[in-house]
Design brief:
The chain is of the alpha+beta class and 322 residues long. The chain contains 6 helices and 22 strands. The N and C termini lie far apart (55 Å). Keywords: Hydrolase, Protease. This is Trypsin-like peptidase domain-containing protein. It holds the Pfam family Trypsin_2. InterPro entries: Chloro_Bact_Ser_Proteases (IPR051201), PDZ (IPR001478), PDZ_sf (IPR036034), Peptidase_S1_PA (IPR009003), Peptidase_S1_PA_chymotrypsin (IPR043504), Peptidase_S1C (IPR001940).
Length: 322
């Protein structure tokens, strides 16, 4: 065997101990007998995150589940509880209770500095065939895809390593066997592998996962404002985000942002229209989400607004927004 083959074998034998098989079932009730029974909803893959039994996978792998089972590489089966969900990035954290000796956490890498053309390996459970290895390269970087709730996921890795139904939630590894992403979607007219797969980058995962473990959800930085829907702004011919309301005591109020108001005649009097954040144009709500996703609580951003037809810059210190 060649060196490349030996490296693949070594990576697979190390990493597969950190990869789990996930089955998702829902409870249904028979309308005639009223008896309940479990219905398989699907299967997927996950990775062991730590010795406390946390498993990271895709949100869509566990969506709608009443019961979740995790099968480790030693074929032992464990009931899992949902710890945290982040549908915006298609991520979920589960937890199983078992001996620490059975838990071998994945080796975490870095998705910053990846290069198109570098070798990658994917491990998953396509079509229920557990612990399947496929290889390929990084085909492109900084792709954007849509999550189940239609939010944009930024910085996504594109790969030609074969990814099929059941691979979702499994690791994308670099040539050293380190996690660089979690496989989440494919582009295929038939629903099977067509050479284009996408993975959420590990730097997003390492940022989100600790929050899902601690809070059960992603705590987002924000300005404490609500916006008039994009469709209405487009109908009015306005380019930018129209502030509908500024929450009392919010970062937006402290910075002096102004909301729309209703006049005594029942007409809408516009307040601030957000046109740029840190010099980057914002035209729709998705632009705002994408920019804020790069920031953390306590960051200060410069918001350019149109107020009564004149540009104005406002500095906002981002705070945790539920």
């Amino acid at each position: 065997m060649g060196n490349d083959e030996l490296e693949n074998i070594s990576i697979f034998e190390r990493a597969t101990k950190s990869v789990v098989f996930i089955t998702n079932t829902a409870i249904r009730r028979d309308i005639w007998s009223l008896n309940t029974f479990e219905v398989p909803q699907g299967s997927g893959t996950g990775i062991i995150w730590d010795k406390q039994g946390h498993i990271v996978t895709n949100f869509h792998v566990v969506y709608g589940a009443d019961s979740i089972e995790v099968v480790l590489s030693d074929q032992s089966t464990h009931q899992a509880q949902v710890v945290g969900l982040d549908p915006d990035h298609d991520l979920a954290v589960l937890r199983i209770r078992t001996a620490k000796e059975q838990l071998i956490p994945i080796n975490i890498g870095n998705s910053q500095g990846l290069r198109v053309g570098q070798k990658v390996l994917a491990i998953g459970n396509p079509f229920g065939l557990d612990h399947t290895l496929t290889t390929g390269v990084v085909s492109a970087l900084d792709r954007t895809i849509k999550s189940m709730n239609e939010r944009t996921i930024e910085g996504v890795i594109q790969t030609d390593a074969a990814i099929n139904p059941g691979n979702s939630g499994g690791p994308l590894l670099d040539s050293s066997g380190r996690l660089i992403g979690i496989n989440t979607q494919i582009v295929s007219p038939s629903g099977a592998y067509a050479g284009i797969g996408f993975a959420v980058p590990v730097n997003t995962i390492t940022r989100v996962t600790p929050q899902l473990i601690k809070f059960g959800k992603l705590i987002r930085p924000g300005m404490g404002i609500s916006l008039i829907p994009d469709s209405i702004a487009a109908r009015w011919g306005i380019q930018g985000l129209i502030i509908a309301k500024v929450e009392p005591g919010s970062p937006g109020e402290k910075a002096g942002l102004q909301s729309a108001k209703e006049t005594r005649l029942g007409r809408i009097q516009l307040g601030d229209i957000i046109t740029k954040i840190d010099q980057e144009p914002v035209k729709v709500f998705d632009d705002l989400v994408r920019i804020l996703d790069r920031h953390k609580i306590g960051d200060r951003i410069t918001v350019e607004v149109q107020r009564k037809g004149k540009p104005r810059n406002v500095v906002v210190e981002l705070q945790a927004i539920n």
